[in-house]
Amino acid sequence: MTPSPAPAAAEILCIGTELLLGTITNGNARWLAEQLAGLGIPHLRQQVVGDNRERLIAAVREAAGRCRVLITTGGLGPTPDDLTTEAIAAAFGATLEERPEAWAAIQSRLARAGRPLTPSLRRQALLPPDAQLLPNPTGTAPGMIWTPRPGFTVLTFPGVPSEMRAMWRDTAAPWLRAAGLAEGVFASRMLRFWGLAESELAERVADLLEGGNPTLAPYAGAGEVKLRLTARAATTAAARALLEPLEAEIRSRVGQWCFGADDDSLAAVVLELLRQRDETVAVAESCTGGGIGAALAAVPGASDAFLGGVIAYANAVKQGVLGVSETSLAVHGAVSDPVALAMAEGVLRLTGATWGIAVTGIAGPGGGSAAKPVGLVHIAVAGPDGSRSEAARFSASRGRSWIQTLTTGEALNRLRLRLLAAP
Length: 423
Fold this sequence. Notes:
Largest sheet: 6 strands, mixed
Number of domains: 3
Number of helices: 14
CATH topology of the largest domain: Molybdenum Cofactor Biosythetic Enzyme, Chain A
CATH superfamily of the largest domain: MoaB/Mog-like domain
CATH class of the largest domain: Alpha Beta
């Protein structure tokens, strides 16, 4: 007789009809997966179930036959569709009882916040009798760590990301470390690329994609391509040591197409390069409507190098504020290299910045023509080594926000490459 396979270490079950409808993005599953990997705990399955008691019971029972730990998010709260705790208990024929310490914590939190205490909130204090309370330091809905039968434990979290993360950090992660579920330690590194298509990047590292440890996985986004490097070893230091030569080899093959790693953004990288040179940047934007400035201002400490900008959407603003000539607009049109150059040079005069970025284009869905279709954008960079502008063409099929996002990234990347090349 063939023995049954050993149960997998962990599964993730996210609960909420809004996830199935696409109303919100399921960021909790991604975050939990990263945390499990960091603890060296493999997980082989993720599932989403709506706010339906019977389907939730079935999903929990099925998971109990496959894994040692089930991690759930969502469905903890005072409203009728918050079914998680009751359904999990029902899956194993358990009753619920009120936990005085949980109810006291709920009352205390509401009192401190000056919020009214309603009867429905009390149901959040109901847990199976033998469940361990998983405290919620930032919200009212506690979770639980419950082993309804030998070899299977459920950890429940609210769907609010900030609450889930605090509960994970304070209670769940220490419990999991002590549970003996780790199969080594995982370390990951995300390399980020701009200006290189996913297919071209895959060709450059094709032989490396076949490795077993570390592994490589490519991802494509809005103009940006990523490579996730993951290694497993006995310790975090050993896992990171496996990643270092692989990262060095990748960077040697792709050169400046790789702009950063992990949480780096193009804006953050550009600002750091400017700081190193004691230089500054200002922006003049038409079709992006302030997107480049917003990307720069989102980086903490941006004021060290980002002076500001002008949103010159109308031609009158291009002329009156940035000094674009009426002749250039009449002869070449607002979407052209001469106008982009004049905008970049104009914002330099206005602000005294070292570098100026300017964009003008057709983001659609209307306004295009055969000569200047939707998705045509002219991007100029002006600086100590001169002013240059070049057109970029983005697909109109992905919509207006897609074109604006790609224009923002492409403009920042062009400045990045100029900074790397400038003496």
